[in-house]
Design brief:
The structure is a homotetramer of 342-residue chains. The first copy, chain A, has 342 residues and is of the alpha/beta class. Chain A is built from 11 helices and 14 strands.
Chain lengths: 342, 342, 342, 342
């Protein structure tokens, strides 16, 4: 059994990790930390876990995370970068669900995240945990930077096109829509039901932190810098991201076949039949990205629709997938959840 | 492996049965019928099931349901009563998720359901499938009448009080609130998002079909007729029932202890700590009824809060639980789903 | 023109007052205060008001509220009680939308609100602003305590029965459901869309601050103390309260006629035809309470359904109605809003 | 007073027309037809209108629509085209809220709408009722084709750019999101709360009926054919459209100034300050289009955000605006509604 530590278990990615790991046949939840909730049974804060989890939150100062085989950081940005070094030195592997190790260029990271990086030397070592791109590097990684939710949906959607050089990568457009759990379990006015309910809006059009992450990833795939317009939106639902992607084709290609072949062996990417429209609820609670590709009116604009559950394939599920790869387990262990519909 | 037939697989209780049975280690989905959708792959109608279910819907006329070990009717009222006889005669056991066999008094049933009963002789044989009350009878049953969603939440909530004769059973009040999936996957104006969204209303105050079912069940428990005021409401959410129950105490009793003892051995009833308020989301997707009991201001009115997922403990989950009991399996097989929160 | 001051314009009752008063033909918004947002144009915080309101928020320290004819407090509890005296002394009339002056018994108020009352001598003078009960006293009032949202819905629902002594007032039950705007525009985790959305729960069953307010009001109407069980619930919508009321009849009476006659001359109470079920959306945005009365199965339990928009008839609309009465204007001035449906 | 007839008063655009016209100082609702609901008081079907509308629905066969000054068709496509001729001949002016007269090319219309046009000769006469483009022609029109909801949001968003030739019109992209009331008050499974709630999806990517309408409109503005990729999405809210528009700039220009100048005199288009993100709730219930224009990272891609209430500026409100223009009334008469927020 793999001994698991979770730093920051009171947020949505934390509780989602617990939901998945509680049933993982090779995982043993060993410590779940929370500074504020030290001593409170996890299932008292999240009654959905009654009968599934007996642990209480423990103060990070006292939790012996070094006894774990792997520690997940389900924390705000800036926490993992201060604590990863010590864990790694103790032989503990680390998966960071926040953004601390996602961006290779330190200056870029510091600009977008507004803080000085505490362990820049680890950034180079960290493996970006998108298995569909980096599976082999993940296998041996000590430190995995788990991708952001938008970046997962957008990169998986563009991947086959960009990889083959089939589109103008200087003018990619990603119009993405997220449910409100993407904002985290933080008390903020704009995330109230009375504010975000029955409402739709774009935000961060001038610049969003996931822009450099996506650009970096697509640039690596393309082998050259890409130009991306990324517009995130808030939609009045709890879970789910739907990315609608636009690019200009520079070659004629059977798009359906391209996508099916690229993802034929991927257990967690599902290419829908031609003409489909993936719904976010079709992935609710499950670690899967469903994709459809369209070429409206046979023109030169390709439209890709990519849907994930932001908390699963966009966060905790992908983290478990990465853990499975890191520990040479069946990649789908603990991830056999049938989506909840309706 | 138990060979399973589902009659009427296109509604919400049908797809929910499929979701649960797709992962049940002892169940083999053998036939899923739909008159309208004959030939359509189940996972085409419900993309959430892609990768989980390979079957196509089959016309009930051609599906060889008699080869099944058990057939679930996830149909509108009035279907099971016409088809159960033939299946039972062929040795197939039947679980009806509709109301055909729930009410013992034929005249009462015919009045509330507005049709003549096709097989009244089977009504007497049918076992009301509320395991917390009838577990032993279910074990040997050929024909199980799976309880309604409101009746499950209300009966489990009142059960300890009524069983012990602690309340005035002539004046019970059940104020129940349901998500819209309780109305089924039927195209009706009043269930549209634009009608039922951001809205709250009572309905059927003059009389609802679940009233005689609940009254019969509580009457059996009390050993005498009960008087019940039942007011159902529609609340703008997808899944979940919350029943708020009121009764006048006629004796002093430790209510918390009463409930905890009554349900101590019940795997799917969870009595919350004193002072709690169960949320419907804490049971989302799971086969559990969470209950809290209150006595505000120490008065003589007891208030019970009872929450279930109407599609699981209120329908498909309870049906699987009944099947497990009928076939001497572990009662929780296939029902080990962690609720989805948020 | 009546010069209007609003203390605390950034919450939901504040912005709702502004919405209504912006179109009131006899009102002139003169000052809208906010400690935090001093200088920010009101329409910048609430873009829905662009083109309707030119004022900026002003610091309460600098706003000359004494030049106003009336000041509304749309503040948390405990603010109005410290500031009302000075305004009243300056000849300004005051409407408090918070709870400071609603409860006549100081000890009771201090117990439920957890603070010492700053101006107990004004409590006696304050008129409880439920026009359907206290219209004449409101007319001459200097200081009006605007009722709470639940208390408005519950009192108007019980009023005809209690007034005539037709029910057992020792065992009244009010099962009330509120949209989340009732919790105010406060950053709190439990009001997030990701927490309160697609979810239903009761809260405060052991005791809610509106209990003593309702009990006082119904006790005054009955002429003797009443016993009330009050269970509030949170429902996943933005606006609206639906109260389902239960009482034991002690006399035979034509309930429909009783309600119609009692409210025949009330401009803002609408008794629906027999057999109706008021929906909260039928009052969305409007200052009206819609009521239906039922006697299920002809038994001795009466069921009253009462629906309001918590921000209008349950707060800002009733406050404007009170202002109209206080200033001898047509009671409906500024309140001629057609509910928004769908 | 203008005598008003509404054909098809039971749908969402119909009830929205009634909501607005009930308070219009120069309008007198004279006949509201419904084949199915003949004789039913309008306020019985829509209790929100109790106290505002006394009319009953009348059978179109008996309603004397020819006595009206103007008749609105709030009907499915294909109705107005059969009835407009007779009304026009009788001197009645007509506003069609459906699509019958929106597209000038008959073959295109017949292809997208799947029926033969009954009165092609009227198509040429009909004026496309987008006041910001066609105000003068509307003034004298007998027959106005009221624009679709998506087309209104998209055209107003692109208008200043296309009009001035500042973008590559061969590759316009409109990513549009609509609340479910856009689908009308029709009993359809995909619009159920249990289907469309807590869910997000694109639809009609291969081709949507509003595509030719938008292309025609933008083509007229550009003076040449345009290439448009239009992807509509369904978002789980009741009212509101948010269009996110993308185009490639071919010139340097002060975008903020461009938009402010273009719409300076438009009463119902509101250009937000630079850096803004319009929310759909900021226009809820009101006849206004709020627009923000962005140029992310100073690149050559312009992003326009355009928000309307699909039932108001996208349907009934714009129809009333057109009526006001047609009858030489103040353009804003009856449209002075403050948006409902929250």
């Amino acid at each position: 059994m793999i001994k698991i530590g979770i730093v920051g278990g009171t947020g949505y990615t934390g509780v989602e990790l617990i939901r998945l790991l509680a049933k993982h046949p090779q995982a043993k939840l060993t410590a779940i930390t929370s500074r504020k909730e030290d001593g409170m049974p996890v299932a008292e804060m999240f009654p959905s876990l009654r009968g599934w989890v007996d642990l209480a939150f423990s103060d990070p100062a006292h939790a012996d995370l070094k006894q774990c085989d792997v520690v997940f950081f389900a924390t705000p940005n800036g926490i993992a970068m201060s604590q990863a070094r010590e864990l790694l030195d103790a032989g503990v592997r680390v998966v960071d669900l926040a953004a601390d190790y996602r961006i290779k260029d330190i200056a870029t990271w510091e600009k977008w995240y507004g803080m000085q990086h505490a362990t820049p030397e680890l950034v180079a070592e960290a493996v970006y945990g998108l298995p569909e791109v980096n599976r082999e590097q993940i296998r041996g990684a000590r430190l995995v930077a788990n991708p952001g939710c938008y970046p997962t949906a957008v990169q998986l959607g563009f991947l086959p096109l960009v990889e083959k050089g089939l589109v103008d990568v200087n003018h990619l457009i990603a119009d993405a829509k997220s449910g409100v759990s993407g904002a985290g379990r933080k008390a903020e006015v704009h995330s109230l039901l009375a504010e975000a309910g029955d409402n739709f809006k774009a935000y961060g059009v001038a610049g969003h932190r996931h822009l450099p992450e996506i650009s970096q990833g697509l640039g690596n795939i393309a082998g050259k810098p890409v130009g991306l317009t990324f517009v995130p939106h808030l939609t009045p639902m709890i879970r789910g991201i739907h990315a609608t992607l636009y690019a200009r084709l520079n070659a004629d290609v059977d798009l359906q076949l391209l996508y099916q072949q690229r993802y034929a062996d991927e257990p967690f990417v599902d290419v829908l039949p031609a003409g489909s429209h993936p719904e976010t609820r079709s992935v609710r609670g499950a670690n899967v990205c469903r994709i459809a590709v369209h070429r409206p009116q046979g023109g030169d604009t390709v439209v890709v629709l990519s849907a994930i559950d932001n908390l699963v394939k966009g966060a905790a599920g992908q983290a478990v997938q990465n853990m499975n790869i890191m520990f040479d387990l069946d990649e789908g262990l603990g991830l056999d959840v049938v989506p909840l519909l309706p």
